[in-house]
Structures are given as structure tokens and as C-alpha cells.
Amino acid sequence: MRSSSWYGGEDRDSYIHRAWMRRGNPDSAFDGRPQIALVNTASDLAPCNSHLTEVAQSVKNGVWEAGGVPLHLPMISIGETLVRPTSMLWRNMVAMATEELIRANPIDGVVLLGGCDKTIPALLMGAASVNLPSVVISGGPMLTGTFEGSPLGCGTDVWKRSEEMRAGLLSKAKFLSSESAMIRSKGHCNTMGTASTMSFMAEALGMTAPGITGIPAPDSRLLAASHDTGRLIVEMVKADRKPSDVMTKASFINAIITLAGIGGSTNAVVHLLAIAGRLGVDLTLDDFDKYGSHIPLLVNLQPAGTYLMEDLHRAGGLHAVLRELKDHLEPSAITVTGKPFIEPLDSAEIFDKDVIRSAKEPLQKNAGIAILHGNLAPSGAVIKPAAASAHLLTHTGPALVFDSVEDFHVRINDPDLDVDENTVLILRGCGPKGYPGMPEVANMIMPEKVLAKGVTDMVRICDGRMSGTAYGTVILHVAPEAASGGPLGLIEDGDMIILDVPNRRLDIDVPQEVLAKRKPSPAMTQAFAQPKRGWERIYVEHVMQADKGADLDLLQGSSSSDVTRESH
Ligand code: FES
What we know:
By secondary structure, the chain is of the alpha/beta class. The chain has 3 domains: 33-143 and 184-255 and 262-294, Rossmann fold (3-Layer(aba) Sandwich); 146-182, no CATH class; 370-529, Glucose Oxidase, domain 1. It is built from 21 helices and 14 strands. It has helices spanning 4-7, 12-21, 52-65, 88-104, 119-130, 156-166, 172-177, 179-182, 194-204, 220-239, 243-246, 249-262, 267-279, 285-292, 309-314, 317-324, 405-411, 448-451, 512-517, 522-527, 534-542; strands at residues 35-40, 69-74, 109-114, 134-138, 145-147, 150-152, 370-374, 377-383, 394-402, 424-427, 459-462, 474-479, 496-500, 505-508. The chain has an 8-stranded mixed beta sheet.
């Protein structure tokens, strides 16, 4: 065991390592058995993860039972709805802390406990770099809350109801009175938002016990499966089954196919690219289009559909979905069990055909993410056609440019704003460097004067991200971003923007020689203030663009689990 280099031996240093760790642990705890870290993102300020310590207790029981030693390792956590200026700024910090603390300690295997949006990607990135045997447990979605007899989808119904209020279809009192019903129980958001998506991505990558993902947080079966995962990680350590053995190119292809089939969040694109970068897997932005865009949407969940995560679990869960897509999946991929990823799919069943559609009768055909290129996005941009309006997928219209989120909020509802339903809204300065942290602001609210006409969607383009619970004809992750000299920073009001999703193009109808003479707008440059100290400064100096997963350049690749120097 790796941990034996701390605990084995009869010298002064091994005495110190054992003595301080005894605290009631018997001699047998140090006899060469696997030491398992439970990397736990439970936090009162990340409320979607606050129950993970209860889950960890079940994992601990399983680890002891299988002959390992469980060790609780609290990790920095991020509450998606609270953290400013954006949780994405801190994802790489959590990934870095996970990597460094696993490596620095006498650990042989790792259980990663996450849920809220950034936590599972960050944990996977860190664990992938150290490459010790690791397994993920997602804390599971919350139960469905209801208000006045109707189910409430976390996030999606907030966006929808607030737009209804702005359009005068819902009173403010009614809007506010649904607040106490929104979050019914422990767990992460119950829509197919980023938390649900990334939990399923962890399973599609092979990094969870098969079938565990999507069990609602309060369901006792989650604790039973967590106990079994405790047993599994001990077995994984003995077999030396590492993240690099599980997360191969085949696994990433399966994740892309799964992402399309479930109608998952566009945030998965940056997270999967970042995880692949830690493993040296050759995953590109265009792979999302190549392997995913022709896959049908089978899961009828908000925001693309109707139901919520509790319904998906009742209807058969992920395996029932993937059974329909089995012919597309890469058969060579394995899971943390060492067995083929596709092995359990044949025994899966659909129990509610409205929640999980068959491949023959999908909710939508060709529903995966599309990747656009053109003179507006030389390194690519992302659109989720399933969440967009079909009539806007081919559109030409004049640009209306906003140089910052603040500029947008000040002007968007100005009655004198020169805007109609053909206008293309451009929001820049929201990329990894520009904000900094690439916030979820791309799904800009509609101008009131357009909403008043009954129009509910417009083409919107941004170098930031979009909430996984949001929808609309939104082109996001434009790379390079405006603050890095991308052409998005050169657009002027009135420039014609040409969107052609069927041909995967995004262009400005301005001659290249004219664009070359333009300078980035002073207002945008002013809004982008170079951070002077701390994490923000490290982040801005090292963050890569969205098409590379917005990881830090100095965190690419594996660091290994080796530490050669002693601390005493
Ligand atoms: Fe935590 Fe949605 S806010 S999962």
C-alpha cells in the first residue's frame, strides 16, 4: 500500500505517523490495509451537499466491513446559488485542493462525495491528476416540491415564473409565495440541470458504482448503495484500478452520448474537457458534435421537457435510458467495477414511457450539442438546439452589444432601446478571464418591449456560460473570449450576425480587413480590471479558454501520487 510508506516501519517517523492517528484506532488499522479518504464537500453554505456527511457514514461502514480504514477529508465546497462572482471561478481551486490533499496524505483510495454543480467536476479533475483508485458518489436529487398542485422544477421554474411576472402574467405575491415550496428536501436540483447532468456524467464515465446515480437524496437506497461503494473502493485499491484505467476516450464518448440522450447541461462541455485534460485524453470540442449531435433526446425532464429527477428514477433511471442507446455506446469502456459499462444495460426496463422515451419515439431527434465555428468564434462556440427555438436556428440579424453584465442590466429594459425580435443580443466580457470565471449569464433576459409583443425567444450570443436549467436560442462559450482578443470584442451595434446551425456557422457579416482595423471597445476593456492579488490573479493569469475546459494551464495532465520528501 502507498500508505505503508507512512505507517510501516519501526523508525521515528513511522512512530509519529501512527501515534497521532491512533485516537482509538487499533494496531490493525496500520497493518498495511487500504486507507480510504472520503473527500466530502458537505457544507452549510453548499446546501445541496449538506447531507453528504450522513452519506459518508454509510461509506465508512462499507470501508470498515471490507477491511479498509475510512478517513474523512472535508473539502472546500461551493454553493451554486450563493457564491460570488461565480462558482466557476472556484471550481479549479477545489480541483487543486483535492489534488494536493489526496497526494499529500497517506491515502490509497478515494471516495469523492459531491452534488452541487461544480463539486463533482472539481473532485474528478483533482482525483484524475493524482490517479489513485477513486469512485464518485453523488448526493442525489431533491424530491419534487409542489405549489398550488403543480410540481416546481429547481431553477427552470424560477426563470419561467420570473419571466411570467415580468410579462404581467403572474403577480409578484404569487411569485414570491412559491419560494418556500421550491426546495422540498435535501439533495441537489431536481431538473436536468448541471448537478444532475454531472452526476450522470460521472456514471457515464464509469466513475460510480453502476446504477447509483439519480437515487433521490432522501431515499434510503442511496445509503445502502453508498455502503456498497465503501466496500467497492477497498476492492479497487487491491486491484489497483485507477481513474486512467476507467476514464478512456471510449468513456468520454459514452459521456457525450449520454449527455445528448438525457438532454444534459451545456456546462458538461467545459467540465468534460477539463477532466480529459487532466488525463491526457484527446477530447476536443468538435467531439461533442461528432458523437452527440445525432443522438435523440429520450429523457422528458425540465428544462427540455416536463418531469423531474424523482420521476426519472421511478421510470427506470439512467440504465433504462442507455439501454435505448446501447448501439451507439463504446463497448470497450469499463466502470470502477472493472466490468464493461454496457453490461448491466440489458436488464434495465422503462417503467414510464412518457418520462423515458424509446429511441423510436424520442422527445427530439438529433438533440445533442452542436459546435459552431466562423469568424465570430474561431475556436468554437456551443449551442444546445434542443433548448432553442427551431425557427431561430438559421437567423440573420443586427447586433446589439452589451460590454458587461452591468451594462446589460442598466439598458435592457430601456423603452428607447433599438431592439426587436430580429436583433441579436451580444453580451461580452463574461469569459474565463473577462469576468473573471465565466459566469452563467448567457441566457440574457428578454427586453420588456419584445416580451410585450408575446415574443419569448431571441438569438443571444455570449462568451460566458448558461445555467443547465435555462433554455433559449443561446450561443455560449464563444472562444476566444472578448477579453482575450476574440472577435466578439470587435462587434459594433448594427453589424449583421449570421447564425446557421445546420451548417455549424457563426459569422459577422463584416469584411475581415474592416474587423482587423477595429480596436476592442474601451467600455469592455474598462470593465475587465486585472485582479491584483490572490486566487483571482492566479486564475486570470493561467486560465485557458472554454474550448480547453477553462482549466488552469499549470494544472493540465497528471501530477501522480508520488511525494518523495518527508515532513520531519
Ligand atoms: Fe446546488 Fe442546483 S443549486 S444543485
